[in-house]
UniProtKB/TrEMBL annotation:
<dbReference type="Pfam" id="PF09855">
    <property type="entry name" value="Zn_ribbon_13"/>
</dbReference>
<dbReference type="InterPro" id="IPR018652">
    <property type="entry name" value="DUF2082_NA-bd_Znr"/>
</dbReference>
<protein>
    <recommendedName>
        <fullName>Nucleic acid-binding protein</fullName>
    </recommendedName>
</protein>
Length: 61
């Protein structure tokens, strides 16, 4: 299975949107074959090294 992994950051509402403070960070994993995409919260995954390990376990890449 071939996948694409991208990082995305989003603003919240109110003051964070006004200041363009991107307080929400996610990792998007997309299947190259069908285009199905899942988003994972980076705060839950932990640091970047752990996120890659978890994604490797899930997708076996």
């Amino acid at each position: 299975m071939e996948i694409i992994v991208n990082e995305h950051a989003f603003t919240g509402t109110g003051l964070s949107r006004l200041l363009d403070w991107q307080s929400y960070e996610y990792v998007a994993v997309t299947c190259k074959k069908c285009g199905y995409t899942e988003f994972y919260n980076k705060a839950i995954l932990g640091d970047e090294r752990n996120a890659v390990k978890i994604l490797d376990l899930i997708f076996g890449s």
